[in-house]
Amino acid sequence: MILKTKRIKKIAFVFMTLVFLTGIVGFLLAYIPAHMSEKHTNDIVKIYYQDVGYTTDTFNSTWLNQIQSYELTAEQGYTIPVYYICPNEVYENKTIILVHWHESNHTVMYPIAEVFAKQGWNVVLYDQRAHGKNTAKTVTFGYLESVDLQQVVDFVFEKSNGAMIGALGQSMGAATIAYYSGTKHANQCLDFAIIDSAYSSMEDEIYSEISKQKIPLPAKALTSLGSGFCKLIYGYSFSDVDIIKQVKSNNSLTLVMHSKCDGKCPYYMGEQIFNAIPHDSKRLITYEESDHLFSFWDEKERYCEEIFLFMDEYLN
Questions:
Q1: pTM exceeds 0.70 for this model
Q2: Burial letters for 187-217: b for 16+ Cβ neighbours within 10 Å, e otherwise?
Q3: Residue 15, pLDDT score
Q4: Same domain, residue pair 197 and 112
Q5: Does one domain contain both 270 and 151?
Q6: Exposed (0-12), middle (13-18) or buried (19+): which is 143, by Cβ within 10 Å?
Q7: How do strand 122-126 and strand 67-73 relate by DSSP bridges?
Q8: What ranges in the chain are assigned the alpha helix state H?
């Protein structure tokens, strides 16, 4: 009887330990991707610029004094910092909104901002949720970020008095734009969208990242576990951030850009997004050898040329 009682206690202890560890893993899978700090985003941008050999000196000397800074207040009360490159404060001009990727901030888009500014565009940059100086507490991988983008579009629409507005984003920034592009608001206010290296859903992206790690547990089960905890903690699941489902309602001129060697967001994700867009005012640009976020640097001349050729062809 005593041995049986000890065995039951041992089994119960092992079971409770497994439940506890499972809970910890699920919590971390939901918590870690959702949290960011201003210092972290600054550090990541610095490392990225070191990798690509870019310095902000030229940008700062030419455009920094042209930037007007604003703060928008989201419905939930947090601050969305907006940086408006508007030479001579002429707001009634064609404007591009640039949306940065996960773990970075608006400054990582300076090289692309330069390209558009030199072509006579006004440029708007901002920090996405929980990145840079944005005071939101959590990242939602495009889900609530799309609401922030809508607010930025409204702000630009009012400032520009209805002039042409486009949006270009990379990785999570591209996913934000893609998610927003399926809304009625985007169909009414956004003239074009450029989606560079986006993931097709948060669920697929988390699953892809887990699969790359040498974890002796099923990636699918871990993804479901993290999604469940995300729903419990933040009120949405990984599957709610479904880019494919959203772009099926896209009615905006759209350029999708993706590399076949993208190690972060596999190429098939770009193809899925492109194929899901229900109209013909779209184009898919494929890069052959660039890793994630490096197409602009590896083939800068082609990257820029394709964008402006696309706009010239469709917008004119």
A1: yes
A2: eebbbbbbbbbbbbbbbbbbbbebeeeeeee
A3: 47
A4: yes
A5: yes
A6: buried
A7: unpaired
A8: 2-34, 38-52, 57-63, 110-118, 145-160, 172-181, 184-189, 202-212, 219-234, 243-247, 267-276, 295-298, 300-315
pLDDT, position 283 = 96
Count of domains for the chain: 2
Q: What is the CATH number of the domain that holds 104?
A: 3.40.50.1820
Asked if residue 220 and residue 135 are part of one domain, the reply reads: no
Considering the domain architecture, whether residues 60 and 208 belong to the same structural domain is answered as no
Mean pLDDT per 10-residue section of the chain, whose length is 316 residues: 59 54 67 87 96 92 92 95 93 96 97 96 97 96 95 96 95 98 96 97 86 76 85 87 96 97 95 97 96 96 96 82
Q: What is the CA radius of gyration of the chain?
A: 22
The verdict on 149 and 214 lying in the same domain is no
Q: Are 195 and 211 in contact (CB under 8 A)?
A: no
Residue carrying the six token digits 């450029």: 194
- Are residues 60 and 109 both part of a single domain? yes
Question: 20 is in which domain, residue-wise?
Answer: 1-34+202-240
